Amino acid sequence: MFRALNASEIVLATATAITFALAPRPLAATVLLVALAVTLAVQVVVLRPRLEARSALIIDGVTPPKSRAHLAYIALEGAKVLMLATFGIVLMFAG
Q1: What is the 8-class DSSP label of residue 92?
Q2: pTM here?
Q3: Could you tell me the residue ranges of all domains in the chain?
Q4: How many other C-beta atoms lie within 10 A of the C-beta of residue 51?
Q5: What is the pLDDT of residue 62?
Q6: Collapsing DSSP states into helix, strand and coil, what is residue 70?
Q7: Strand, helix or coil at 2?
């Protein structure tokens, strides 16, 4: 599930980055786009592999050590929601 969600996010982020490369945009929107891309990269490269490894252990019947990776993933999702809302507002008033 997370793999499909992250793949769609990567496609949309790439399309947005290409659009930004073709047309001038406000600096605030560019900063937010970079922050969103970094947040997504942390989720995909750092947290998701840890969560997948933990899931595999649980499926195999092993009790894994405690981890805060899931909470970190949720926190980053919340941050992305706030950044996306701000991104939309910045673009709405940039015109």
Answers
A1: H
A2: 0.85
A3: 2-94
A4: 16
A5: 94
A6: helix
A7: helix
